[in-house]
């Protein structure tokens, strides 16, 4: 059972544990591993909360996709639900299970098409540490109503982005963002949750302009701007889809 994650400093504790599991993996690569799992936990929590309510309703079918779409909640097929993935976290095939879960979620939720990471089965990713990371993220509640009201996803995401940005910057990575910029970008994303993500081209153009202005305000290196913008757009679309369900 997930613990309430609103305690002071829980972001730092969660990061410290997750960072230990990173070992020698580059921060730029590990970022996508962790943030993808956090988002998966978020939508699974939101789904499970509604699922349990529907099970108690005589005339409702908890496996009916429309029950979730009508509530602006992503439908999570059985094989992709967090409890199923966590039950298989210690198996060497966990990377394959995760990739399949992401594919199935995208299949049943067209708005997520092409957004979720699907590279967990790659040979270079330590499957034991991946399983431990799943167990770690499983200890925190993210997508149920109580934790959505406390913006737990936003707090975790913002803190992790800042730490990844710092780690990448120290290594001279392509996407270094000072914590002040991370905070501004996160606020920008948080304020954009009502946008129509189906109008992807126009939405991305507007987001690019906003990101450019923030980066330039803080003197971000022009030669690294393009990579930073692409990374932020991917993160923005992923997290905004989550906040839409609040």
Fold and architecture overview:
The structure is a single chain. This protein is mostly helical and 246 residues long. The protein has one domain (10-244): Up-down Bundle (Ferritin). It is built from 11 helices and no strands. The two termini are 21 Å apart. Residues 1-8 and 172-176 have low confidence and may be disordered.
Secondary structure layout plus pairing:
Elements: H1 10-22, H2 27-55, H3 65-69, H4 82-87, H5 94-108, H6 127-137, H7 145-149, H8 152-170, H9 179-190, H10 200-217, H11 225-244
Helix pairs in contact: 1-6, 1-8, 2-8, 8-9, 9-10, 9-11, 10-11
Give me the Rg, rounded: 18 Å
At CATH level 2, the architecture is: Up-down Bundle
Instruction: Decide which structural class fits the backbone.
Output: mainly alpha
Describe the sheet with the most strands.
none
Q: What is the mean predicted local confidence, pLDDT?
A: 76
Return the string of H and E elements: HHHHHHHHHHH
Strand content: under 5%
Q: If helices are DSSP runs of H or I spanning 4 or more residues, what is the number of helices?
A: 11
Task: Tell me the span between the first and last alpha carbons.
Answer: 21 Å
Shape: globular
Poorly predicted runs are 1-8, 172-176
Number of strands: 0
- The tally of structural domains comes to 1
CATH class: Mainly Alpha
CATH overall fold name: Ferritin
């Amino acid at each position: 059972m997930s613990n309430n994650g609103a305690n002071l400093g829980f972001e730092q504790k969660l990061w410290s544990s997750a960072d230990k599991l990173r070992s020698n993996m580059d921060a730029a690569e590990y970022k996508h591993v962790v943030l993808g799992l956090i988002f998966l936990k978020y939508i699974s929590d939101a789904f499970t909360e509604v699922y349990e309510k529907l099970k108690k309703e005589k005339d409702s079918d908890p496996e009916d996709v429309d029950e979730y779409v009508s509530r602006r909640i992503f439908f999570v097929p059985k094989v992709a639900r967090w409890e199923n993935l966590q039950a298989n976290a210690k198996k060497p095939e966990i990377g394959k299970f995760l990739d399949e879960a992401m594919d199935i979620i995208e299949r049943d939720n067209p708005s997520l098409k092409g957004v979720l990471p699907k590279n967990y089965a790659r040979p270079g990713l330590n499957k034991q540490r991946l399983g431990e990371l799943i167990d770690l993220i499983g200890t925190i509640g993210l997508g149920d109503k109580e934790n959505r009201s406390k913006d737990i996803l936003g707090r975790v995401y913002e803190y992790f982005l800042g730490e990844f940005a710092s780690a990448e910057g120290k290594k001279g990575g392509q996407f270094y963002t000072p914590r002040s910029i991370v905070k501004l970008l996160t606020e920008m994303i948080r304020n954009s949750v009502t946008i129509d993500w189906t109008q992807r081209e126009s939405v991305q153009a507007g987001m690019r302009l906003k990101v450019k202005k923030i980066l330039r305000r803080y003197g971000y290196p022009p030669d690294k701007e393009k990579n930073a913008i692409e990374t932020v757009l991917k993160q923005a679309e992923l997290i905004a889809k989550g906040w839409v369900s609040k």
